[in-house]
Amino acid sequence: MNSEQYLCGAILIDGQRVLSAIRGILPAGAFQYDEYRAVYTAGLSLLDAGEPVDPVSIKAQAKRQGVELTNQLLTELMEIVPTTANCVDYAHRVAEEARTRAIKELAERIQSDTVSSADELLATLQREAEAIRGSSYQRGLLTPCDTLRRFMDYVVQAGEKRDNFIPTGFKGLDGILGGGFIRGGLYILGARPAVGKSTFAVNLADNMAGNLLFVSLEMSPEQILAKRVSRLTGCTASKLLSGQLPDKAWEAVAMATTAIEQSGVYINSRYDLTVQEIHLLAQSVPDLRAVFVDYLGLIQPATRGGSTYEQVSQTSRELKRMAISLNVPVVCLCQLSRKIEDRKDRKPMLSDLRDSGAIEQDADCVMFLYREDYYTGGTGDGLPSSVELTVAKNRHGKTGEVDFNFWPYSSLFKECQPKNEQLGGKTV
Fold first, then answer.
1. Between the CA atoms of 142, 146, 152 and 155, what dihedral angle is there, to the nearest 10 degrees?
2. Domain 3-148, CATH
3. Yes or no: is domain 164-427 CATH 1.20.120.140?
4. Tell me: the pLDDT tens digits for 43-88?
C-alpha cells in the first residue's frame, strides 16, 4: 500500500473529516496517478458544494471530471485502510513524494542539457528549486473553517482515545506536564555531563507503555541494555558489561532480559544520524508512541557549513517538525553550557541551553536535572543521590519541580513523595 492509495481509501471511508483535515496540506498536483488524483479532486468538489462525500458521489463526480473510477478500484482502496486516524501524516508523505519526484526530474533535465552554459544551468536550478520549495510552504494554508474542523476533530478524538498525552510513569511529573508528554511536542531534557540525564531517559522509556524509538548517539545498544537490566536487577552496569556476575545474579538477569524482550523499545545501531535519518527510523517502528534522542549536540547537521549556533538551530527546528509529522512526543537530551560552573547557584536556567537560543523557542517543554552532590563528590556507595527535576518551560501545563532519588550504580530513578502528601514520615 502506497501513500496515495491509503489517502484515497481514507477519503472514501470518511470523506468529509479526512478532506477537511488535509486540504490545506496537499495540492491536487501532488498525486502521481490520475485515478487517485480524481478521488481527491472529486471529493474536494463535493465538500465545497456541501454535498455528501461518499464512494457513490465521488465516482459520479469523477466521471463528470472525465475520469472513470471502477467499483473494484474503490472497493480495493477502502479495504486496504485499517484506520483513517493517520490521514494527515499520509498527506504529508504524498506531498513529500511529489517534491522528491520534482527534484529528480529537475536533476535529469539539468544533466541532459548539453547546450546551456554553467551560469544558465545554475540559474535554472536555483529558480526551479525555489519553486519546488515554495510549493511546500503553500500546502500548509488552512481556511478558518478548516482550522475549526481540525480542532473539533482533535478534541473529539482526544475524548474518545484519551491518548493525546503519553504518561511518563512518574505521577508528579505527569501532574506538572498536564498528563504526560503531548503528541507532536518537543521536550528538551538538559543537564551537565554525568548528572544522569541518559539514565533518566532510559527510565522514562521503560516506564512508558507502547512502542518507542530510543536513539543514542553516544552509547552502544549493549550499554543501553546494561542500564535497563541494571535498573531491573540492581546489578551495576559495569559488572553486566564485564560479565563478572555472581552465580545468584544470573537468574535475575535472565528474568530482566525476558521483560525487556517483551517491551516496545527499539534502538538504533548507527551513530552518525541526521534528523531526517532518525525520522526514517521512527517511521519504521509500528504504532510509535514516542522518540528519545541522546543527545542534541551529536546529531549530524543536514547541511555542512555555518556556525555551530546555526547548525544547532536548524537541528532544533527539524526535531520539532519531526514531532509534528510523526504525531508523537520527541524527547531530546541536551548538554548545558559550561558557564554554569562559574555561578554560585549552579541550578540550571533556560539561558544555560548550549549553542542556540532556538532550542528554547522550538521546545514545547524544557526540563533540567540538578544534583547537588555532583559538585560535592557524591553520597557514597549504595546511597541514593537527591535529584531535582525542574520544568522550566511548558506550553501545555505548569512549571515546577519534582524530586527524585537516583541510584547511579543501579541506574534507577524513583520519584519522591511530595512533601504535602507526607505526615510524620509516613505517606497518607
1. -30
2. 1.10.860.10
3. no
4. 999 988 888 889 999 999 999 989 999 999 999 888 888 777 778 8
